[in-house]
């Protein structure tokens, strides 16, 4: 929803300069491997078109989305020398649209491979694809049984130009999890077999956190997502990434309440002393999760203030008893995501991950982009 900033209940500022810096940092860690970018889910809620344009300007030539419709929406704004990969593959019967919109499917099953091969035969040309292999996540990609079928009959990819073999790490944010090495060894073993037939076959393995596991995980192309947008890539370690988002909500009104008064639905918070409460125009309809009830915080001029009472559909309430009253006028902005309360800190309080906080950010926010 496009609206005047002054009318919006909250402002979401996306710093494309920080995004660009994060991309350069990740590319630097990858050395000769290419740094792609996951821009699925509207670039984690930050706007796939402006985010992708900024990344392309930084040299990114590989963009990953989840669904075909995302690729179609993005293609008109992105040069055709930039590859757009659709990680869910083709919806059944829509293979030809990949040609029309110049995007590349990630083939996850023998059925998808067969449909893509059929289109290649009909068009009498080789068609590009990525083939995903499941190395332990049990989500998408060729199963072990399907992989054996492929290894025993490489003709199933006749007419398919296999650009990359790809797999996905399940536990990369925990650098000590033994599954990382298990998946790596499995992927390396499979690549060695595949490269006996597909000479020079390239590989893609690392997500954001995988980049930080070391060069063995980098292969030819990485697919960072969350780290680009400021989410910490390694659990338990200080994040090297720049903050990309700032979320500010507007105060609607304030009120004085006596000791013992309750705030919000279900009376989940009561004042232990006379208090001042500010109501702010952000709620769970805007992606400010209900699990932040009575545990979230905001900042006003650097002063931390607690969220009190349950998060409502359109509002939250803050205990602003210790804030300068001159800062509490209707329309004043309070910081919800900021350097003092990062996406990861918000997620920890909400009992979730930074990915969910970003992708939940709602359409009612006035989005403002900062770039060089």
The amount of helix comes to 25-40%
The radius of gyration is: 24 Å
| Biggest beta-sheet profile | 7 strands, parallel
Strand content: 15-25%
Distance between the termini: 25 Å
The number of E-state strands comes to: 19
Give the uncertain stretches in residue-range form: none
Structural class: alpha/beta
Mean pLDDT: 97
Shape: elongated
Number of helices: 11
The spatial strand order of the largest sheet comes to 3-4-5-6-7-8-9
Order of helical and strand elements: EHEEHHEHEHEHEHEHEHEEEEEEEEEHHE
Family: Belongs to the alanine racemase family.
GO molecular function: alanine racemase activity; pyridoxal phosphate binding
Keywords: Isomerase, Pyridoxal phosphate
Pathway: Amino-acid biosynthesis; D-alanine biosynthesis; D-alanine from L-alanine: step 1/1
Question: Can you walk through the features of this model?
Answer:
The active site is at 40 (proton acceptor), 265 (proton acceptor). The protein is built from 11 helices and 19 strands. The protein is α/β, with parallel strands linked by helices. A 7-stranded parallel β-sheet has the order 3-4-5-6-7-8-9. Strands 1, 11, 14, 17, 18 and 19 form a 6-stranded mixed β-sheet that branches. The protein has a two-stranded parallel sheet with strand order 2-10. The radius of gyration is 24 Å and the shape is elongated. The model has no long low-confidence stretch (mean pLDDT 97).
């Amino acid at each position: 929803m496009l609206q005047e900033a002054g009318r919006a209940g909250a402002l979401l500022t996306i710093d494309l300069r920080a995004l660009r810096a994060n991309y350069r940092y990740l590319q630097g860690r990858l050395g000769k491997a290419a740094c792609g970018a996951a821009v699925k889910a509207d670039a984690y809620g930050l706007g796939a078109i402006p985010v992708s344009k900024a990344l392309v300007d930084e040299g990114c030539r590989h963009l990953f989305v989840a669904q075909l419709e995302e690729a179609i929406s993005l293609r008109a704004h992105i040069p055709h020398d930039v590859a757009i990969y659709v990680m869910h593959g083709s919806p059944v019967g829509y293979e030809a649209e990949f040609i029309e919109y110049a995007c590349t499917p990630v083939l996850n099953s023998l059925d998808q491979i067969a449909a893509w091969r059929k289109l290649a035969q009909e068009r009498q040309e080789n068609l590009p694809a990525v083939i995903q292999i499941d190395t332990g996540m049990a989500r998408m990609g060729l199963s072990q049984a399907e992989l054996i079928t492929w290894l025993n009959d490489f003709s199933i990819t006749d007419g398919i130009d296999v650009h990359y073999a790809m797999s996905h790490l399940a536990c990369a944010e925990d650098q000590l999890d033994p599954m990382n090495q298990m998946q790596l060894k499995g992927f390396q073993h499979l690549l060695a077999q595949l490269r006996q037939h597909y000479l020079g076959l390239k590989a893609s393995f690392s997500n954001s956190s995988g980049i930080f596991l070391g060069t063995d995980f980098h292969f030819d192309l990485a697919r960072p997502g969350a780290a680009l947008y400021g989410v910490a890539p390694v659990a338990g370690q200080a994040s090297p990434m720049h903050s990309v988002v700032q979320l500010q909500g507007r105060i609607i009104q304030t009120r004085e309440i006596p000791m013992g008064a309750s705030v919000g639905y279900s009376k989940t918070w009561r004042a232990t002393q006379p208090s001042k409460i500010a109501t702010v125009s952000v709620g769970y309809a805007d992606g400010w999760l209900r699990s932040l009830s009575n545990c979230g915080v905001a900042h006003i001029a650097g002063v931390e203030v607690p969220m009190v009472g349950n998060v409502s559909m359109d509002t939250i309430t803050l205990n602003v008893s210790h804030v300068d009253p001159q800062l509490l006028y209707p329309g004043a902005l309070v910081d919800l995501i900021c350097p003092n309360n990062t996406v990861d800190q918000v997620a920890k309080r909400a009992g979730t991950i930074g990915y969910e906080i970003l992708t939940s950010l709602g359409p009612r926010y006035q989005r403002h982009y900062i770039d060089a």
